[in-house]
Amino acid sequence: MINNVVLVGRTTKVLELKQNSNGTPYVQFTLAVNRAFKAEDGQQQADFINCVAWSKQAENAAKYVTKGMQIGVEGRIQTRTYDDTNGTRHYVTEVVVSKITFLESKRSADPGPQEPGYYNQTQVVGNTTDPFAPGYVNPHNPDFNNPNFNPNVNYNSPFATATTMAGQTSD
Predict the structure, then answer these.
(1) How far apart, in whole angstroms, are the C-alpha atoms of residue 49 and residue 72?
(2) What is the chain's mean pLDDT, rounded?
(3) Residues with Cβ within 8 Å of residue 79, at least 6 apart in sequence
(4) Are β-strands 44-54 and 70-83 bridged in parallel, bridged antiparallel, or unpaired?
(5) For residue 163, what pLDDT is reported?
(6) C-alpha–C-alpha distance, residues 33 and 101, integer Å
(7) Which of 9, 29, 100, 167 shows the smallest number of beta carbons within 10 Å?
(8) How far apart are CA 29 and CA 25, in angstroms?
(9) Closest by alpha carbon to 110, among 125, 101, 124, 121?
């Protein structure tokens, strides 16, 4: 039997690190995953999927993931139940995360004020239509024109050093 989930989406809120009764750290978050099609009115549709990460994954996620950040998640689907104070049974289906992949930097995930319903609007200055023209700014990769940007370095990694970051400043 196989129970494997791979998702790419954007976080819908700031991740808050919590601890269970045993002292194990965890974060719960919702991932907005766009559907492959649009609604009849042309609006992009998304599924909002509940996720939970434990231990070191949770600590790293709480430290490095911001609201609206695009991340990749690998894990498994879990359904659990609990009874509330009124005795009503509730069913919760969520993805138990085994791996988180950062797909953009904190800088590009924090665009500032946003309109409701949009997760990551990037303010772009310069030419965004012709990639071969002077002044081209890639709206999907703000580091495109950064001369110090090294695509082989994971700038969100807790193991990145000043030397490996090739002149990049920390957030």
Answers:
(1) 13
(2) 77
(3) 91, 92, 93
(4) unpaired
(5) 47
(6) 15
(7) 167
(8) 14
(9) 121
**CB 93 within 8 Å of CB 78:** yes
- 77-119 per-position pLDDT tens digit: 999 998 999 999 999 999 999 999 999 876 655 555 444 444 4
Closest CA to 54 of 105, 15, 9, 10: 15
**∠77-18-27 over CA atoms, to 5°?**
30
Where b means 16+ CB within 10 Å and e means fewer, 53-73 reads: beeebbbbbbebbbbbbbbeb
| 131-134 long-range contacts, CB within 8 A, separation 24+ | none
